[in-house]
Structure formats: structure tokens, C-alpha cells
# Entry
Amino acid sequence: MAEEQIVPKIETGAAEQPGASQVETEITPEKAVEFKVETGIRAAAESAPAPVAPAPVPVRPLPAAKSPQQLREEQIDQILSEGLSDIYLSLSPQKQAEFRQGGEATVKKINILLSQAKVKVKQVLDLIKRWLAIIPGVNKFFLEQEAKIKADKIMKLKK
# Structure
């Protein structure tokens, strides 16, 4: 009997019209739960989008791990090529090829020198000077200064 007092009685729209008989519908808590569950399932089923299959993930091969020697060669190459892009682009195609090959050989020789226990800075400096001397019409003072700066940066790699 206490449940009947808590549950309100719902009147339908027919009672508002004159001459119509009043119809009362009583909703019990059990019916309310059933109604909510039933309408919730229907609404969810109607509004839910169709299941979408996940997109396949492309399989990429893992990059090969580089040895410390290769990493150091890349660092040396980066140091040697710093600030020389304008000069390189101004060279003729034959000189560009010669400059590139000379640079690759210089990188390998410097890397070998750095792998020794005792590094001779003079040898590293001479290698860089010879490589920069490939540039036609290069100023002697520019060559000395660039070689010194690049040698100092390369020696920091050793430490």
C-alpha cells in the first residue's frame, strides 16, 4: 500500500478534452524498470552505427640498428658538411662529384683515426684541409679557419 502512495498516477491526454472519459494508468516500479530497459535497448540498437572493422595496420620493417662506427661517421659527415652547402651548389657537376667522393673518403679516414687510442689532431686537420682544397679558388685563410673549427668539433666526438 505504501508503494501506491509513492507512485504517481499518470493521466492521458483524453482527460483534457471535454466530454471524454478520464482514463488513469497506474505504473508500478517494476513496469517502469521494464519500460526503461526495453526502450533503452531499442533506442541504443536503432541509434548505434554499424560495427566497423578496424583498419589493417601496415607492417613496416624495423630499421637496422647502426653500429657505433656508423653513427660516428654520420656525425663526422654532418660536422664536415656544416656551412658548405652554398659552396657545394656553386661547383660544377664534376667538381661536386669529386668533392663528395673526397668528403666520404675523409670521413672514413677520420673515423679510423678516432677509433685509435691516441688521436693526432694534426692528421685530422691535414685531412680536412686536403678535402677543402678541392674547392677551386678557396682562400687560404678560410681553409685554415674552417679546418680548425671542424677539427675541434670532431675532437669533441672522441671525448
User: Anything to note?
Assistant: The helical segments are 2-6, 29-47, 68-81, 85-90, 93-115, 121-132, 140-158. The first strand starts at residue 9 and ends at 11.
